[in-house]
Amino acid sequence: MKAIYKSQFYALFQSQQERCFYIDFGQKTVRASFCQLLALRQKVLSIEIEDHFDSDLNQHGFELLQLCNKEHLFILNTHEVLDLKQLIQNGFVQLGISSTEEILMA
Amino acid sequence: MKDIARQGMSIKVESMDMLNIQIKMEAHASATYLAMASWCDQNGFFTSAKFFHKQAEEEREHMMKIFNFLIDAGGSPISPEITNINHDYASIVDVFESTLDHEIAVTKSIHAIVLKSREVGDIATERFLDWFVMEQVEEENTIRDILDMISVTGTEGVGLQMIDDHVGNWIE
Questions:
Q1: Is B5 within a domain?
Q2: CATH number of the domain residue B68 falls in
Q3: What is the number of domains present in chain B?
Q4: Which residues of A touch B (CB under 8 A)?
Q5: Gene3D superfamilies of this UniProt entry (chain B) (predicted)?
Q6: Which of A16-25, A59-68, B45-54, B161-170 has the highest mean pLDDT?
Q7: Could you read off the pLDDT tens digit of each residue along chain A, which spans 106 residues?
Q8: How open is the CA angle B56-B156-B102, to the nearest 5 degrees?
Q9: B61-107 pLDDT, tens per residue?
Q10: Contact indicator for B4, A34 with CB cutoff of 8 Å
Q11: Where are the domains of chain A?
Q12: How far is A93 from chain B (nearest CA, A)?
């Protein structure tokens, strides 16, 4: 298994043999197909982080994240959401299907 | 290392994101034209109502074209959520002027995606959008012609009725 990108809390791996990806969430590792990885990207990048700083829009500063056809459920705080966004953005750059040049430091 | 991600998708994720925004824009245009059809129908402009019904269908076809392209490219198309559809117009002229503004906004958005896909070397997306670029020239031209016709006919007396009748010339 090859490490694609590691952020502060999370890590993205690619398995050539299984033709899939693994995301290490710390307490749990999640297996994801490419389509599921795309769905995760969509969910994570569409989280409005500004809402975490407005108690009317997000009272407790948490996000519920369902992954891989509702197989997994995560509750993330603001720091974890920011870190996951970083993992996704930089992971896709490393995978060669994102053209974003800037790679944030992990 | 095997390029599993590239094997899964033929376009860049940035293009996919912009095309998903375009899907939403086309869906919004379709819903807006349906609202215009409703306004026209309620205000006695029955031919214009038919015209906008047809426009609404066309915009939905555009949306589906992009949606299916994303599926073919291995991407993840998002079914759009549409809100804030205006149903209030001051006059039939207002309706067509709003239509032209809407088409110009769509054109600008498509051009932005073409330029971005060119910048990131996403040739497939750039070529796919060729059809949309030319379609927008046609769409804008149709509405400009109708506004010219309204300007020549005038809105006094039976002008409004004549305008509505003439709109039928642009229903294919």
A1: no
A2: 1.20.1260.10
A3: 1
A4: 2, 14, 16, 19-21, 34-35, 37-39, 41-42, 92, 95-100
A5: 1.20.1260.10
A6: B45-54
A7: 888 999 999 999 999 888 899 999 988 999 999 999 999 999 999 898 888 888 888 877 788 888 877 888 889 999 999 999 999 999 999 888 887 654 444 3
A8: 25
A9: 999 999 999 999 999 999 999 999 999 999 999 999 999 999 999 99
A10: yes
A11: 2-95
A12: 9
Contacts of A38 in chain B (CB under 8 A): 8-9, 13, 75-76
**What is the extent of the structural domain holding B136?**
11-78+88-170
User: Does residue B36 form part of some domain?
Assistant: yes
The tokens for B142 are 């149709």
Q: How far is B16 from chain A (nearest CA, A)?
A: 10
What are B15's two structure tokens? 């293009």
CA distance B8 to A21: 12
Q: How many CB atoms lie within 10 A of CB B148?
A: 10
Strand order in the sheet with A11-15: A2-6, A11-15, A20-24, A29-32
Query: Is the ipTM value over 0.85, yes or no?
Result: no
CA distances from B133 to A94, B123, B139, B154 (A): 32, 15, 10, 32
List CB contacts of A72: < 8 A, sequence separation 6 or more: A28, A30, A66
| pLDDT tens-digit readout, B103-150 | 999 999 999 999 999 988 899 999 999 999 999 999 999 999 999 998
End-to-end C-alpha distance for chain A, whole angstroms: 20
